[in-house]
Amino acid sequence: MAVPFDITDFRLFVNVAETRSLTRGAERSFLSVPAVSNRIKNLEDTLGVRLLERSPQGVALTAAGEVYLQHARVVLAELERLTGNLQPFTAGLSGQLKLVANTTAITEYLPPVIGDYLASHPDVRIDVRERLSDDIVRLVREGATDLGIISGNVPTAGLQAVPFVKSALILVAPLGHPLLAQREVWFEQSLEYAFVALLEGSAFQMFMTRAAGALHKPMTIRVHVASYDAICRMVAAGAGIAIMPKAAFARLKGEQPIGACNLRDDWAIRTFQVCARDLEGLSSFAREFANRLIGRYAPGGSAG
């Protein structure tokens, strides 16, 4: 007997699987926890397999659950693609673009593109999530997102990746700081001082923590803040030094008594790429977004 698959079940299961929690999956699905639990149990009974292992810490996917999740994502992606491709023929048709990017892409490069895009596509909703670049590649491969914006030397085998801009990370310090006497410094030199840094959960701060770990030295953080703007203000107040994108520093420095110098480390120059499993196979509105992003920055090739 054919199994009656349901689109709502697919969406619900993806939400639970991605959050590893019935509660958070229910919140994302705008349903009650008992309703979600019952729906998944009915799904398991219908399929005759267990999809989730439940525990007080949350839920984990079984082997069958991993297979179901993979196919659910493919089905939902195909539906979004169909929606986007029909949009030119149907007035008012809406769609969703899933986009995962790292911290710098979200703060420096995506805002103007998203603003222009949404102005001409009022019926498209963009879901933007922040992750580390290696996590982004994994999510694109799994079909959990339409597009990924990554930087650095992250393997992208099996994906299509198009470079669109280069960006530099720099050291920022109060005027008169001894490190600013040099045009370039090694990140290792900066580890002798206390830092102002983004919140611990941010993708950028996780990247910097890894960089310090590779040197087997701790990164002493005096203050955690939520934005590059707050970093500049804290550095100006003498709370510490910081590492941040050159593009963000140029945008936020203003008249504050702070200066910057370049980092000598190879990883401080990063090439940003937009990646997808198949750029031509994306929905029309996702493909257009990718083309707009590439077109806005690629001609110059560098944004500092």
Write the SSE topology.
Blueprint (H helix, E strand, L loop, with lengths): L6 H13 L2 H8 L3 H15 L4 E4 L2 E4 L1 H24 L8 E7 L1 H18 L3 E7 L2 H10 L4 E5 L8 E15 L9 E2 L1 H4 L4 E4 L4 H12 L6 E5 L2 H9 L5 E4 H7 L5 E6 L5 E8 L7 H14 L7
Parallel strand pairs: 3-4, 3-5, 7-11, 8-9
Antiparallel strand pairs: 1-2, 5-12, 6-10, 6-11, 6-12
Description:
By secondary structure, the protein is α/β, with parallel strands linked by helices. It folds into three domains: 7-77, Arc Repressor Mutant, subunit A (Orthogonal Bundle); 92-165 and 270-297, D-Maltodextrin-Binding Protein, domain 2; 166-268, D-Maltodextrin-Binding Protein, domain 2 (3-Layer(aba) Sandwich). Helix content is 44%, strand content 23%. It has helices at residues 7-19, 22-29, 33-47, 63-86, 103-120, 133-142, 187-190, 203-214, 228-236, 246-252, 284-297; strands at 52-55, 58-61, 95-101, 124-130, 147-151, 160-174, 184-185, 195-198, 221-225, 242-245, 258-263, 269-276. The strands form three sheets. Strands 3, 4, 5, 6, 7, 10, 11 and 12 form an eight-stranded mixed β-sheet that branches. Strands 1-2 form a two-stranded antiparallel ribbon. A two-stranded parallel ribbon has the order 8-9. Strand 8 (195-198), helix 8 and strand 9 (221-225) form a beta-alpha-beta unit. Helix 1 packs across helix 2, helix 1 crosses helix 4 (63-86) and helix 2 (22-29) packs across helix 3. The N and C termini lie far apart (60 Å). The mean pLDDT is 89.
